[in-house]
Amino acid sequence: MVCFARFARLVIGTGVLLLLICAASPSIAQQVNPTASSVKEQQLLQELNRVQGRVSIPDQRSGVLEQPAGREWREFRNVTLHWIGGVAILGMLAALIIFYLTRGMVRLQSGRSGRTLVRFSSFERFVHWMTATCFIVLALSGLNVTFGRTLLLPLMGHEAFSEWSQWAKYAHNYLSFPFTIGVVLIFLMWLAGNIPNKVDAAWLKRGGGIVGHDHPPAYRFNAGQKAIYWIVVIGGGLVAATGYELMFPFYLSGIEGMQLAQVVHATVAMLFMAVMLAHIYIGTIGMEGAFEAMGSGTVDVNWAKEHHSLWLEQENARTGANDARTQPTAAE
């Protein structure tokens, strides 16, 4: 009888427990919603922008287990940046080719006088060519980071591409220092002559001598050259600052700051390269006599009269040259 009584109590207790579970199950089902919980979890991840725990080692950054913002950076790095670079650089090349085929080289209408005028000193030309040479190497090695795997790896093979990329990385890192020095010197050397003024507005309205055959007056630097100057100073400053943040990681910011630095560095660099293509075009095949300014440091007097007449007047007044020097004569 005792055993039977214990068994009966066990059965009754089990039945009551089952009834309680069944009665509570609707409320539990209402409280637990896997879909809603997932939504809350995603909202939490977006707010925190990372999943971070605690670690016992000195490097606390290793406690970051997941950083959802990194997916957006990877999308920019692998997709968006390719479009920015391709459109900017290839678009500029296409525009320059079309412009050259339709406009051709800007010729000296009055011919060469046979007399020259010093335009840039040896030091100015040294700083220019040092900065320009570093820029070309930095541009090519930087393009390798973005497009190398897609364009060069299939042609060179893994071993050759790895060797090239390693040396390109060394060149990119070390040549950044003389490039930065060059940008600073350019800023200091030519700041006084690159302040915008009313003459620049008139120069732009008249097409700057590039569109059509007009020759608006200009001082030592015209509006187009001033634009290049400020692009070099501001763009070069941005790529240098962000580049050093990437070169020396975690000294100035965490991973989020470095991702932002890479976005700014790559975007500005692509646009910088596109603008420099136009600068190289004008300084070589785009305008007769322009390369001589940075090549030998001198320009023909007639070139100065057509493109920088106000600067020529200043030089004549400074050196005490007579009026005959400003008059174009036939080249011998």
Keywords:
single chain, 332 residues, mainly alpha, Fumarate Reductase Cytochrome B subunit, two-stranded antiparallel sheet, disordered C terminus
Q: What report would you give on this structure?
A:
This protein has 332 residues and is mainly alpha-helical. It contains 13 helices and 4 strands. Strands 1-2 form a two-stranded antiparallel ribbon. A two-stranded antiparallel ribbon has the order 3-4. Helices cover 71% and strands 3% of the residues. The termini are far apart.
Specify the structural class.
mainly alpha
SSE order in H/E notation? HHEEHEHHHHHHHHEHH
CATH topology of the domain at 73-120 and 191-326: Fumarate Reductase Cytochrome B subunit
Mean pLDDT: 84
- Look at the structure and name the CATH superfamily of the domain at 73-120 and 191-326: Transmembrane di-heme cytochromes, Chain C
- How are the strands ordered across the major sheet? 1-2
GO molecular function, one term: electron transfer activity
GO biological process, one term: anaerobic respiration
Subcellular location: Cell membrane
Protein name: Formate dehydrogenase gamma subunit
The gist of it:
It contains 13 helices and four strands.
Task: Lay out the secondary structure.
Elements: H1 2-31, H2 34-48, E1 51-52, E2 64-66, H3 69-103, E3 116-118, H4 122-151, H5 153-156, H6 158-174, H7 176-190, H8 198-205, H9 223-247, H10 255-286, H11 290-295, E4 298-300, H12 301-307, H13 309-319
Antiparallel strand pairs: 1-2, 3-4
Helix pairs in contact: 3-10, 4-6, 4-7, 7-9, 9-10, 12-13
Membrane topology: Multi-pass membrane protein
Transmembrane segments: 83-106, 126-147, 174-192, 227-251, 263-282
Keywords: Cell membrane, Electron transport, Heme, Iron, Membrane, Metal-binding, Signal, Transmembrane, Transmembrane helix, Transport
